[in-house]
Amino acid sequence: MSSPIIARRPGLGSWLTLIRCETKMVVRDTAGLVVPIGLPLLILMMNSSAAGGEVVINGRTALDVYVLPLVITIVMATIGIINMPSFLAYYRRSGILRRLSVTPASPAMVLIAQVVVSLLQTVIGIGAAFAVALLVFDANPPLRPAAAIGAALLAMTAMYALGMIVAAVAPTPNSAVAIGLVAFFAVGALGGLFGGRDSLPDVLARAGEWLPFGASVEVLQSAWAGVPMEPLHLISLTATIALGGLIAAVFFRWD
Amino acid sequence: MEDLTFGTGGRPAGVPNVARMESEPAAVDVRNLSKRYGGTLAVDDVSLRVATGEIFGVLGTNGAGKTTTVEIIAGLRRPDSGHVRVLGLDPRRERAKVRQVLGVQLQQAHLHHALTVAELIDLYVSFYPNPRPARELLDLVGLTSQRTTRFEKLSGGQQQRLSIALALAGRPRVAILDELTTGLDPRARRKVWATVEQLRDENVTVLLVTHAMEEVERLCDRVALLDAGRIIALDTPAGLVARAGAANLDEAFVALSGKELEESA
Questions:
Q1: Mean of the pLDDT values across residues A171-184?
Q2: Which pick of B47, B71, B154, B210 has the fewest CB atoms within 10 Å?
Q3: Hey, are the CB atoms on B119 and A24 less than 8 Å from each other?
Q4: From CA B212, how far away is CA B265, in angstroms rounded?
Q5: Closest Cα partner for B42 from B209, B229, B225, B226?
Q6: How far is it, in rounded angstroms, from Cα B108 to Cα B64?
Q7: What is the distance between the alpha carbons of residues A206 and B230, in angstroms, rounded to a whole number?
Q8: What are A132-154's pLDDT values in tens digits?
Q9: Contact status, residue A212 vs residue A236, Cβ threshold 8 Å
Q10: Which UniProt keywords apply (chain A) (predicted)?
Q11: CB contacts, 8 Å: A30 with chain B
């Protein structure tokens, strides 16, 4: 009966089970799938036929250089800023994280599993938009594919960082959705979500370019057009990650 | 598990194994525990020792400090002062080890609402190195026929039974069960009691938080009576009745605490 008690962390099988469970939670939350997969497709449809023909730079069309980076950024921003924090806020509020904290699984396992599942969701969202753009509207792949993937990873991490700030400050699941939506539309509007930043007042256009949404669009544009990325945009995304990590570390509560 | 067979074999309730209590280290050892929230003392100098295999009741009105006490024992809250050991381990400093041997059913704990009974059981089972098989857990709490039902679609009693199954997934040596049968209908309540009696047969130590007298009489070897954060009596259920010169535990409770227990809905 009194065999020595050894602390064992849950193994690989447990991680896979948890990721499978989180996937089911995300898939069964149908409403949460509409925005990150439906909205980008809609924006793609509305802008593609007009932007498809004219070559803007290096054999890339307006569709490639302006529409696709925006669409990809919308997928990443909706998942990172709205969906992920609302799941975390729900798990915290409902006591699921507290329940897990009395098992050998740590609440951090849930966070990591959520990130894995939302990355899968992002890949599907971007993949769907990209496939439609390539097959229906004759879009072209980025001139610098590796740079595009790197830029997308950096931008996605920045969106998660922003999402962690939302999760850290939101007291309830509803407020997490509300704060996430406001944050998304704020950085989106300033970053070109409703049309180019050129139409904005100078100060706002500059701010929008510095904020993660605008910076994400900019670095993806550079990768598509095959031109060097501006250090300013990379610094902005990196700074968002650092700031989000810091704020989440100080203010995020598991229960 | 549809038939309602109750604990066969094992010691009957109310007969503590005194010899074991003296010779072995306590499964749960709490000394001089205090916890203050703002101006109120939620737990006030509580001490108790629960022997291995004992079913120990923590009884009191709402706000008596029952849940705070067991949450400190589970390592969920930090006491202001006092000493807590579970199987000789400190629940906060040796958290990872305690998690292997302690099963906890929290009051009103919610689970992933869109997952099914079987999915939740598979998930919690996966956390432990030597778990109870999923089929056995389903059978233990009588949820085999609900295995493909989502958590959100279960009745209150079924959710409660699932919650107990998950607390037992890792074959705990100590189980904390908080407000086990609150809100259950009599039939569901008897099923849950049968599960606890099965734990007695397996020599699992159980800390049972309750405000249901019938539950205490039926299950508990000993019971601590909490009032305003203090233990006002600690004895066998029969001992409490005798001490208060009362006819039953209800009357004993009123005599000892000066309060009526509210009816558990």
A1: 90
A2: B47
A3: yes
A4: 10
A5: B229
A6: 18
A7: 63
A8: 999 988 889 999 999 999 999 99
A9: yes
A10: Antibiotic resistance, Membrane, Transmembrane, Transmembrane helix
A11: none
Q: How far is A18 from chain B (nearest CA, A)?
A: 6
In terms of pLDDT, which residue wins out, A141 or B211?
A: A141
Angle A68-77/A145-169 helices, nearest 10 degrees?
30
A-B contacts (CB, under 8 Å): 79
Nearest CB neighbour to A96, from listed B100, B104, B112: B112
3-state secondary structure chain A: CCCCCCCCCCCHHHHHHHHHHHHHHHHHCHHHHHHHHHHHHHHHHHHHHHHCCCEEECCEEHHHHHHHHHHHHHHHHHHHHHHHHHHHHHHHHCCHHHHHCCCCCCHHHHHHHHHHHHHHHHHHHHHHHHHHHHHHHCCCCCCCHHHHHHHHHHHHHHHHHHHHHHHHHCCCHHHHHHHHHHHHHHHHHHHCCCCCHHHCCHHHHHHHHHCHHHHHHHHHHHHHHCCCCCHHHHHHHHHHHHHHHHHHHHHCCCC
Strands in chain B per DSSP E? 28-37, 40-50, 55-60, 81-86, 102-105, 174-178, 205-210, 222-227, 230-235
Architecture of domain B19-107+173-257: 3-Layer(aba) Sandwich (3.40)
B90 CB within 8 Å of a chain A CB: no
Find, among B195, B212, B205, the residue nearest to B7 by Cα: B195
Which residue carries 């980076």 as its tokens? Answer: A69
3-class DSSP state of B60? strand
Contact of A100 with A106, CB cutoff 8 Å: yes
Cβ of B109 under 8 Å from any chain A Cβ?
yes
B113 touches chain A (CB under 8 A): yes
Rounded to whole angstroms, how far apart are CA atoms A157 and B14?
A: 59
- Cα–Cα dist B124/B188, whole Å: 23
| Contact B128/A at CB under 8 A | yes
Strands B40-50 and B174-178 come out as: unpaired
* Two tokens, residue B31: 């000394």
* Cβ contact A104–B110 (<8 Å): no
For residue B28, the SS3 value is strand
Residue B20 or residue A161, greater confidence: A161
Verify whether the Cβ–Cβ distance B127 to A104 is below 8 Å: yes
Among B26, B40, B14, B94, residue whose Cα is nearest residue B230: B40
Mean pLDDT across chain A? 89
**ipTM metric:** 0.84
pLDDT at B23: 54
CB A63 within 8 A of CB A51: yes
**End-to-end CA gap in chain B:** 25
**Do A6 and B100 make contact, defined as CB atoms within 8 angstroms?**
yes
Using the Cβ of A13 and the Cβ atoms of chain B, whether some distance falls under 8 Å is answered with yes
